[in-house]
Amino acid sequence: MTVAQMYLNAVQKRFRSVKELGDKTLDQLEEAQLHWTYNEDSNSIAVIVKHVSGNMISRWTDFLTTDGEKVTRNRDGEFTDSLQTKEDVMTVWEEGWQVFFDALQGLTDTDLQGFVTIRGEQHSVIDAIERQMSHYSQHVGQIVYIAKQLKGSKWQTLSIPKGQSQAFTESMVKKHRQ
Length: 178
Prior knowledge:
- The chain is mainly alpha-helical.
- The protein has six helices and two strands.
- Pfam families: DUF1572.
């Protein structure tokens, strides 16, 4: 396996992990919670989902051949809370990730040596991938944080529960020794 293939496998795995955190978070929320904002300057989870999806569709449609900031994108419109139902939110969430994963899975070793343009600025393909890793992780983190605050004691943890780190580590070490 080449270093490029190892890299592509690693980033696909990491991005799937980021999406899974978002999936598990969104699953825990009621429709009204998706639209809650701390204040008028804050974004709701529905707005964050709409923005992330809009970014994915713009950046990853014709990723290698067109500017990642498509003329058809209405970035400012992504920050209006226009998704009405939880089903709408989930549909937009899945659409963005589908476009993204289709493009990412289609990349080859040779593609990783190339360059793409985002807002007229040239980036290596690897830099463009890493840029999106940071961006999507940041926004999924926001979604998780908001949801955790909204759910309070009803929040179902997405990682190792408090007080169980040592037991978890021991079970992982044991598992990997076998």
